[in-house]
Amino acid sequence: MPTHTMRAVRLREHGGPEVLRYEDAPVPEPGPGEVLVRVHAAGVNPPDWYLRGGLTTMPGEAESTVSLPAIPGTDVSGVVESVGADVEDFSVGDEVFGLLRFPSFDGSGYAQYVAAPASDLAHKPASLDHVHAAGAPMSGLTAWQFLIDLGHDHPSPFQGTLHRPTALDADTTVLVNGAAGGVGHLAVQLARWKGARVIAVASGAHEEFLRELGIDQFIDYTKSRPEEVVRDVDLVLDAVGGPESARFLRTLKRGGSQFPVLPGEFDEEEIAKLGVTVSSAQVRSNGAQLAQLGRLLAAGTVRVAIDSTFPLADARAAHERAARGHIRGKIVLTVA
Questions:
Q1: Can you give the pLDDT at residue 217?
Q2: Long-range contacts of range 272-280, CB-CB < 8 Å, 24 or more positions apart?
Q3: What's domain 164-278's architecture?
Q4: In the chain, which residues fall in CATH 3.90.180.10?
Q5: Judging by DSSP bridges, how do beta strands 173-177 and 197-202 pair with one another?
Q6: Given this model, what pLDDT does residue 1 score?
């Protein structure tokens, strides 16, 4: 069993990467339905630097659940150290991975130990190391819930209707913008798994990497504007999103759909005129879906690319790497 204290990365104030402190913190106690996980690796994701920068209320939350000092982090891979009441699917010594308590800022994954809801976890495939497993949960579940199965009926803070994925098969063409990033490179592989034709948009530095993932067409956005060279796409998954996302509407065929991972600004009249739909979702923790993704990872059908790794004590350097952008795959913290 662990001692009463552990090493963790905490915020005592909001700001740049320099506010991330590697220090002692209490070991959490797992409650009913939870397990204590000894963390071997923790994924780095956008909500981590949103929290660090001062965002403390998740879209859809009525009020903040954050109190300082706070431990960032949602994605972990590790070993079950102890099991709380009412947990049947996991035992001490099991290797697990998961997206914890999302959507919220309460994951607390940047630590040697974390109390995790059992329902957020899946058994880690034996063939997958902890670093690659820690890179999978948030990005993999985002791609899964946008493309394959939403898997819940919770209302979205971004729209009035539930998101509905588009059926993907050999007759479907999917364009993925931001295809080399965390969500993007996994979305490419899930679309290929379903048999779809995939067009990837990224910078030229990532072309060889994306062709290794099986894409059918590559567009270097530094040389060409996708909306000027692509037409009649069935689905756009925009893993970048934001203000310029609407330009991809012009690549869609009538009846097509655009899924912005980060909500953008769209003109309803333009959407209606083009005869297309725009739909978004908010990724949620889901151990059962992660187990399905885990089977694809175990089979080698889908793989997680690792951009870089940093020791937990160097979380500041990991956030500085994230701020430089042009990430290929995932940034992961290793935990001693």
A1: 98
A2: 274/249, 274/250, 276/249, 276/252, 278/249, 279/159, 279/161, 279/163, 279/164, 280/156, 280/158, 280/159, 280/163
A3: 3-Layer(aba) Sandwich (3.40)
A4: 5-138+284-334
A5: parallel
A6: 52
Task: Tell me the one-letter amino acid at 134.
Answer: A
Q: Which residues contact 85 (CB under 8 A, 6 or more apart)?
A: 32, 33
**pLDDT computed for residue 268 by the predictor:** 94
Q: Radius of gyration of the chain from Cα atoms?
A: 20
Q: Is the pLDDT of residue 136 over 70?
A: yes
Contact 51, 70 (CB under 8 A): yes
Q: What is the pLDDT of residues 240-283, one digit of tens each?
A: 988 889 999 999 999 999 999 998 889 999 999 999 999 999 99
282, two tokens: 């908010």
We find that the CATH architecture of domain 5-138+284-334 is Alpha-Beta Complex (3.90)
Distance CA 298, CA 136 (A): 12
- 141-147-149 Cα angle (round to 5): 70
Domain with CATH 3.40.50.720 in the chain: 164-278
d(CA 5, CA 94): 22
Taking alpha carbons only, the member of 132, 124, 112, 130 closest to residue 336 is 112
Flag whether pLDDT at 106 surpasses 90.
yes
